Amino acid sequence: MKRRTLMLGGATIIASSVAAAAFWPRRHIVVAARTFDWKGTDFLSGGTRSVALKKLPAPLFRTRPNCVATIAQTLGPCHVNDIPARQDITEGKAGLPLRLAVRIVHAADCRPVENADIEIWHTDHRGIYSGREAADMCTLNDAEAIGGLAFRGRHLTDAAGQASFLTVYPGWYKGRTPHVHCRILVEGRELLVSQIYFDDALSDIVYGGHPDYRQRPPHDTRNDEDGLIPRDAVDHIFDFEKLDGGVLSATITIGLSS
């Protein structure tokens, strides 16, 4: 039986299909000082064209998640309306293939929230948002970005409160650490708008060594330098796993207070 390793913010979870155990520190800003024996070239490039979401192993989540309400954050100027329901949100664009899996629970007791409509959006590998409705500061007036809705999508959670997307690792832009926006509605009512972040050590590997990202300068903002990331950020950092075949998997548990 193959063992799988899910990297947390400063710790690891070793899991099999039979049992799992977890441990992690509580701290204000998760800035990993550790290094990985991974290289950017360990991962596929060119987007998700050779990746089938249904053939990937089931996402690993913490067996003992922190059942707390996820902190609300600003919607921001890069949101657009009328996002399509889909799981592969790349529209054929380049980047390191990334399976994002979200588990939505009631913060009070960790019960899963079924049929929650979760919308996500983030930048492409160049650090540019798509969408004609998005502000110029988001699209940088890039014709390719304005002409599509890449890296935007929505999906309903299943009975376990889970929803998965196939995307690529977001590129950075000036003044922000890499992140994914999310908006959650239940029965048409908006319950949360927030942002989820990535471990600095992982971003260093991707931006410094992956062929789709390394032509850009080093990213200028780390987690402890971002003015918008919550001070108690441990529950806003994706856990992540390197899957066989060069795909990255990232998971997060989001707690709703309502």
Beta-strand proportion: 25-35%
How do the helices and strands follow one another from N- to C-terminus? EEEEEHHEEEEHEE
Mean pLDDT: 89
Number of H/I helices: 3
- Kindly provide the radius of gyration, computed on alpha-carbon positions and rounded to a whole number of angstroms: 17 Å
CATH architecture, please?
Sandwich
| Strand order in space, largest sheet | 7-4-11-10
Number of strands: 11
Helix-strand category: mainly beta
Roughly how many Å apart are the termini? 40 Å
What profile does the largest beta sheet have?
4 strands, mixed
Q: Strands, helices and their partners?
A:
Layout: E1 4-7, E2 12-15, E3 20-21, E4 97-106, E5 117-121, H1 136-139, H2 143-146, E6 152-156, E7 162-168, E8 179-186, E9 189-197, H3 200-209, E10 239-243, E11 247-256
Parallel strand pairs: 4-11
Antiparallel strand pairs: 1-2, 2-3, 4-7, 5-6, 5-8, 8-9, 10-11
